[in-house]
Amino acid sequence: MKKLTYLLLFSSLMLIFLSACNSDTKTEKTPIKLAEVTRSIFYAPQYVAIEKGLFEEEGLDVELQTTWGGDKTMTSLLSDGADVALVGSETSIYVYSQDSKDYAVNFAQLTQTDGTFLVAKEEHPDFKWDELKNSTFLGQRKGGMPQMVGEFVLKKHNIDPHADLNLLQNVDFANIPGAFVSGDAEYVQLFEPTASIFEKEGKGHIIASFGEASGHVPYTVFMAKESYIKDNKETIRKFTEAVYKAQQWVQENSAEDIAKVIQPYFEDTDLEMITSSIERYKSQGSFATDPILDEEEWNNLKEIMQEAGELPADVPYEDLVNTDFAKDVIGK
User: Fold this and answer.
1) Are 151 and 256 in contact (CB under 8 A)?
2) Which of 27, 39, 88, 312 lies 20 to 30 Å from 302, alpha-carbon distance?
3) 96 phi and psi, to 5 degrees?
4) For 78-109, how does the pLDDT look when each residue is reduced to its tens digit (9 = 90+)?
5) Among 181, 214, 247, residue at a domain's last position
6) Which residue range(s) make up the domain with 254?
7) Is the full-model pTM beyond 0.90?
């Protein structure tokens, strides 16, 4: 009887010990500091990956921070304030051209079109692009993807943005919406949900999509320093796996279901508005369905930068794009 009591006690202690060990194993996750260039419904798959626990399934503990602007985001990445950055891939070209010894490498694409819409103060029921000529246009930051894509589209419609417009570029990215409402600009480029909110509140009217007009381009991409990727290959693979799962989930589910998942990131925006914004992006194919940044998209990016006079060097695709992780997770 005594032996049986000791045996039962020993078994209980072992179960407690093993349970504790198992619990510790489950909570041991690899931390990743992730910096996003802005907070936007355009990045819906990223928020889905966080909210649906897809990063956690891969053993990753992702800490998201919004760094508001491409220059600030890249500074955070290069100074180790972030491990991974979600930002326009043009920033990696700028860093590389400065002979950086530890440059940023693009490893997973999130969005594949421009995410801005042309918003006007007045209604334009039968809008034609040449209506922009001689107008005051509140532009984006010089050298940033929104501005370069905007100029690319305008030139396709025979509009020289610097000669045919009164182009204003003296407002910080985060302050552009407010400056449009309070200023004299007749047109502006805005992301969702700001564009739809302005339309609902009567502050502007969405009259065209720069995403539809510009075609596929690696607009927003996850990137990390070359050294970080080299030293953390399995972490990057797991990160890419979670992104791919989120992309597939977004592809397979309705705009309303996606909106319900990401609503915590847009507490001041009602569900209906989030849903309509997602529907706009889904309908024009803005969300990439897999994380591969292909060479054709890279060449489109360089053409857009060249047109804007912002391409510092003809950077080879092989130097700044690593598709190994993306191809691995989708089985290519």
Assistant:
1) no
2) 39
3) -60, -40
4) 999 999 999 999 999 999 999 999 999 999 99
5) 214
6) 29-113+217-330
7) no
